[in-house]
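Weekly puzzle thread! Below is a chain. First person to post its structure in token form gets bragging rights.
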Amino acid sequence: MAAVSDETDPILVKRAKAARLASLGQRIGYLGFVVAVTVFVIGAVTEFNGTIVAIVTGSIIVGSIFLAPSIVLGYAVKAAEKEDRAQGR
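Winning reply:
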């Protein structure tokens, strides 16, 4: 059986695209949580007002929306790659 290059195999192309999407989503998600923690600390040091609470809440929501599916997608890509290695592809 001839070796298939990464550029011509549509499954590998889709998998690479999914891996890049998962990585971007994880970065955005973790950034949302970093912003939430940072603003929370600022609010704890100064005073909590409506703006601080809205930023913390919004950052946690955005972080969760991006991070949860990205983690699942990242694990799916890793599992598919592991399965391919196990089958010798």
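Puzzle host: Confirmed. Bonus trivia for everyone else. The first helix runs from residue 10 to 45.
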